[in-house]
Structure formats: C-alpha cells, structure tokens
Structure prediction request, 942 residues.
Amino acid sequence: MTAFLKLLFRNRLAAMGAVVLSIILVLAILTPVLPLQDPNITNTGDRFARPFTEGYLLGADHLGRDQLSRLLHGTRTSLMVGAIAAFLAAFFGSAIGIISGYFGKRTDNILMRLIDMLMAFPYILLALAIVAALGTGLINALIAVAAVNIPFFARNIRGITVGLSHREFVDAARLAGKGHIRIILTEVLPNVLPVIVIAMSTTVGWMILETAGLSFLGLGSQPPDSDLGSMLGQAKDHFTTHPHTSIIPGIMIFLIVMSVNLLGDGVRDALDPRLRSGALSRPLPVTNVAKDRNVPAEDTSANAALLDIQELETQFHVGDRIYEAVGKVSLSVKPGECLGIIGESGSGKSVTALSVTGLVASPPGVITGGAVRLEGDDLLAAKYEKLRSVRGNRIAYIFQDPLSTLHPLYTVGDQLVEAIRVHDSRVSKSAARARALELMKQVRIPNAESRLGNYPHEMSGGMRQRVGIAMSLANEPDIIIADEPTTALDVTVQAQILALLNDLRRERGLAIIFITHDFGVVAQLCDRVAVMYAGRIVEEGPTQAVLDAPAHPYTKRLIACVPELGGGRRELAAIPGLPPVVNDLPPGCHFAARCDKCQPECKVGYIALEGNEKRTVRCIHPEEALA
Amino acid sequence: MGSYILKRLVAAIPVLIGVSVLVFFIMAMIPGDPALAILGAYATPENVAKLNADLGLDKPLVQRYFIWLGNMLTGDFGRSYSQNKPVIDEVMGRFGNTLILAGVAFVLCSILGILAGVVSAARQYGLADKAITFTVLIGISIPSFFLGMILIILFALKLRMFPVSGMYLIYGGGGLADLANHLVLPASALAVVATGVIARLSRSAMLEVLRQDYIRTARAKGVGERRVIMGHALKAAMVSIIPVLGIQAGFVVSGAVYIEMVFDWPGIGQMLVNAISQRDLLLVQGGVVVVAACYVLFNIVVDVAQALLDPRIKT
Prediction:
C-alpha cells in the first residue's frame, strides 16, 4: 500500500489532483458548521450582487441568495450524488459481470445480451427515459446515472472473471466442495476488486458530470435544493447579463471533475504494472547515439571490408540501471562473404545487428561508442535521410518471426512494392508490382501471382519467411543481416531457406551476416563465425577451424550442445547455469561462473581478445592454442 | 463484404426489438394515468375512460406493446399531444437538426482527436505532447454545457463573431452560410470532450503500435518516418481507434442534448427534455426509439469500417 501511494504521488499531476480534491472534500464536509448564510434565504434587493460585495463573497444569484453558501451546499450534494451513483453502478455492474463470467454458458449469454441492449442507447437517452418514467428529482437522476453506467462495469468485470474462472485456484476450490457463493466471495472477488477500484476511480468524475448534467436540464434536483448542475441550469437564463452566477458553479464542477480525473489516472497508472517499467515509450526512428562516443579511425588498407563494425558499444538505460548489451564488438564482412554470429539468447547478437542501421529501440537503447563503417562512411554519424537511404537499399534485414514483423493490414504484394518504391519513386506501381512478382518467384513461392494479394496471416510460416527474404532482396542490397531467420520454422523449410540464401550469395555476391544460436546452421552456411557471450565476442575464426578446434571453453560447450545425426555416440551436454545479467558484469571472464576450467585468475582484471589475423579468442586458458 | 453487412443487419434485429421492449416497458412503469395528464381539468371519469379506450390503454400490456410495435413499423408513432401533430413528423424534423449539429461535431472530434493523438505519440514527452496532454486534460474535465456558455460570452457577446443561439437567423436568414455561422460555437463546444477522449486513446494506441516489430521492419526497409507514422502505425492503430469512434458517436449525440439547451438549437434533445417536463410520453418514446435505432445502425457502419480495415476479421 505504501509502495502504491509512493508511486501515486511521484506522479505530480495525480498529487495535484489529490490536493485539490482534498480541499474541496474538506470544505464540503465542513459546510454545515461553517459560518455561512442559509443557502435558501432570498433577498431580492441583492439580486445578482457581484462577487466581493459586502456580505456576498461570491455575489448573489437571481433571487439574491448567497452564492458562496449555495456553492458549498451544492458541491456537497454533487459529490455525494456522484459517489453514490458510482458505488451503485460499480456494485450492480460488477455483480452482473462476476455472475456472467463465473457461470458462463446461458447465464452469460442472456446477461450479456441484456447489457448489449443497454449499450445500444446513447447514454443520455436511457437516462432521459428513466427520468421520464420515474419523474424528475435528484434521487431519480442518481438512479438513472447509475443505471446507464452499469454496462461499463459489467463488461469489464466479466472479462476478468472469465479469465479467473478457469484458473487452477478456482478449480481447486470447486473440487474442495465449496459452494458457488463462497467461491465468488473468497476466490473471485478479491482478484477483481483492484479492477473495480480502478474502474470506479476513472468513472466517478463522469458520474458527477452526468448527474450535474441532468440537474442542469432541470431533471435532477428541484428547487429550492440545488446541486452544482441545477445552479448552472438556473443561471443559464441570466448568463449573458450576469455571467458570474454561472461561471462560479461551472468552475467548481470543472475543478472537481479534473481533480478526480487526475487522481483516477494516477491510480490506474500506479496499479498498471506495464506502465511501471516505462515500457510504453515508443522507439525513435534512429537509435540515440551518445555525442561523446569514441570513434575509432577508419581502416584505409586496400583489403578494407565492405561493412566494418568497430568497437561497437550499445547500452540500454532503464531508470538508473545501465545494461551493457554490446561491449566493444568488432566485426567485418567482405562482399560475398557470410559471417555467422552465434550465442545464447540475450548474448547481444541481435542488438549488434540492429545497431548497424540504428534500429535498436530507443529509448531505452543508446549507442555509446564505436563506429559502423559502410565502405568507410560511419553510419552512426549519418544524418537520418542518409541512413534511410541505406536501410533496405544497401543493408537489408531478415527478421526472426515473420508473423509479427510483417504488417498485418497490408498485403504482402503491397509491402514488397513499398520496399521497392521507397528507394526509387520513379518506378511505376505496375513495374514495382512486376518486380515484386519476380522476387516472389525467386524465393520459390508457389502461385506467386495470386499470393501477392495475400495478407500475412493467410500464409504459412515458411511462406511468410520467404516473403521476408524477398523483401530484403527487393533493392539488391550489398549486405543482408539475417536475424535468426529460420528459428521459427520446421527443419525441412529451414533447409530450403538456407539453401536459398546460399544460392543468392553465390549468384549476387552479397555479403550475409547470419545470426543464430545453432552451430549446425553456421556449419552449413558461414565462412567465418564469431561467438558472442554476455555482449562480448569470445572467439572468432573461420567456421571449419572453429568447429574442428574450438579454443574458448564456451564455444566447445556450445558445439557439444548440437545433436549429431547418425553417429550419436557423443554425449549431449547442456551448459549449466545462465548467462550473467549485463547490468552488473563481474570482472574477468564473464563465462567464468559456468566454466569447468575456471582458475582464480579468470575472475580478475580485463581479459582481451587475442590471437592472430585469422583467429582470436578471449580466454587465458584456451582449449587449444590457436593455429 | 455484402454478406457480412447483411449478417450484421440481421443480427441487429433482435437488438432493435430489445431496444423497443426496453423503452416500452420503462414508459409503462410510469405511475399515474396518462389520460389524466392529457385531459387535465377535463378529466371526468367518462372522459378518462373514453380517452384510455381511444389510446388503447385499456388493453393488456403485452398486447399494447405489439400494437405499438406494429404501428411503428408502418411509420405510425402516435400523436404528440403537446405539439398536436404526429410524433414521427416532430421527431424526424428535430432529429435532422440534431444530426447536423452532432455530425459536424463528430467529424471535427474524430479528425482533431486522432491528429492530436498521433502528434502526441510521435513526439512523446516532447513539448507538443505535453501541450496536447494538458489541453486534453482540461477538455475532458469541462462540462460541455458550461463550455458552451463560456464560448457564447467570449465569441458571441464580447467579440461578436458568431450568433448567440438558434440555427438560422429569424429575419432574412437561411442558407448554408447562415447555418454554418450558427454551427461554429455549438459544434465546437460539443466536440471538445470527445476530441479529448479520442486524442487520449489514439495516443496510447499509437504508442502501443509503434513498439511492434512490423514498425521496425518498415523502418528497416527504409520507409520514411512520416510514412511510418501516418501510414504503417496509424493504420494499425485505427483498429483500436475505430470502435472508440463508435462509442464516442453515442457520447456526441448525448452531449448534443446539453448543447441544444444552451444554444437553443431546435434538436431532438431539446424536444425530449421539454416532452419529459410536459409528460408527453408518446413523443419521448418515439424520440428515444428513433435515436437508439439510428445508433444501432451507425454501429453497424462502424463494424463494417472495421472489417474493411482489418482483413483478419472474418467476414
């Protein structure tokens, strides 16, 4: 509870709302004992007395009644009526929702149809009909407002109850022979109560406004009693000549509703765990790059690489914690070369790949150091428009899960056409379409012509992934970065896709960076491989050499994790433990804690990536000396 | 799509019947004798009995419902005693006026609300976002009837830019320009709250969508940021915005009742409030049923729009 309050009041707006509302509440509670005039005593001599005149701090209304006194009494009434309406709506709505959700089947069906019926009315029509039937008056207006808000609670609470009623603890209670009423009261209700509270706190402002509205129309409180709405309603006839009589109650309603809304939003945010982590910030078009990053010098030698990632450092800043997702990673590819990056989940492979064209979600991502050079040009320093012209044009991506990475509302044909036309608007739509068709055939999608009109959800996983590949090929890029493109696919499709990529590499001489956690795939496709662990490269070298004689203990263990076909005499060995969390890395070797060859000196100081031109390893006690 | 529309129309029939039942029985709960109210001082027992027979009020409730329903289906909603003309004529004329007011306000709040939400999300935590969030907060907290009064004081009385009330000038008015001139203030007052609600929702829908993988894909393809926001992201966000537009349409029609009272707009809200205080129940009944039926049909339009946008909805 204190944590909740702390969270609530860290939200300055919510705190402001709470303060304003408390002041109004205290005034409303104290109204009967404050030295005020009787709100109903008329004094026609002082009709429309202006504010701050003697005896009338806020002036007088059309009957010469003291505005201050009427305002406070009206506020008292309005608050009470709004709160009671909110409680009634919450009580009956939640009861219907819980019963409907808990019993399901026909009960649910009938109740929900009734709720649908209530929701078929614009709310005020129903309220008007109820008031017409019951007659005008504050209590009837209250009933009408409560009634029209029942569907809101019923629907929300039903949805949550449906989820709960299939959970284990409810089943357990049922099996234990508890009656329905006891289960609802002891198992279901405690779990839906927070939601009811949130729903109430976000609607009570509305209900105050709605009852005030009915009173404003003359259907709520009747003279001489007044709530804020009827004060406004009576002032309406004179507001052009004596605006103060309407502005004063109007501002009071505004203050009440605004402070209730602010507080309600604060309560909702504080109770909604998704907002707590700040997860709702949207990624910027380009990852933030720290201004003070160190930029390594360009490699100007003759055999410079096509893409050269130099000492790249990418971090995630969440609150005051810093996660070092990528630590001084250097990698490069030449035209026609395939480089594999391998490692467990969370080892920084994808973040490295996304950093290349500034696609790391930011916030929270920040590139804090290094350079990414495409033929010498540092992409991290590039202006947005320049970077945009590289993305998808010279460096293209294939992502892991094609169901979530393709736009669900565009046909795959349109998505392909777009990929072509964003980089060359001179291409006509029909030419782009013809090109899209050609691409679909190239990645061996059967019935390519009719498939162009498909939406992603209408295709199988393998077909979708081919679309992803076709899209990456659209502008004949120099480099394709494939981020686990086959992980979500079954083995036969996986083999086809790998063969396809391999062919394209041979035919077009494109460079591929292939990210995976599967050494089998690396062996099949890659010329060189880099092994990543906890955001650092721990070993790099030609694929065959690394496979034959892994130097880093981690690499060796990783290879041992790959099942062997046919032979099967080797022992499959999982690596015990988990990779370290990258916001608090220990000194020395990051793998030390899981390594069975660990020595005391492995846990101190910085261990550099060492070796020769072809192979490097970050280990003091490598499995084998590098050849 | 044609069959989907047909299916939705068929599915609306039970809802419409339910609406009519609900309205009828709410009205039937009214204590007291309507004939007494109508006859007033002339309410001798013979007169009351005769009027009850004329109005069909001496028959059982269920039978009365079916008579009323049957009459309605032939366009006969009864006669309004306060207006002394057929209910349907009064309701249709009034409802048309409300539709002009509410329709303009609805278009206004949809466009402004979505735009504000999109800008707010694209510039999250920036100056524009803070300004919009703050304005929206005020907008959704201010009672529309109070806002209407303030607008009148400021723009009609002080600045004399727009007329104080009514729909047309009484002398020499008429025409579209006159109507538009009279519409500005009430439509703005009416649109404010819904704009705020739509802006809030659009903002959070956009923020949700912008975090999706397919937005990263669009950026990875080299799609420009404007197109990412206004195309890819907004299209996906519309899936959650459209249902809210449907709900807000109901709120706009509801709000129109207050605005009509403030601006003396000859719409159905004003008619209903007057009919309630004059206890002209047939008029109330007819008005409520017609508006509710239109709202049900409007929601079908919303569903169809949703199905056109989202191919994953089975049609």
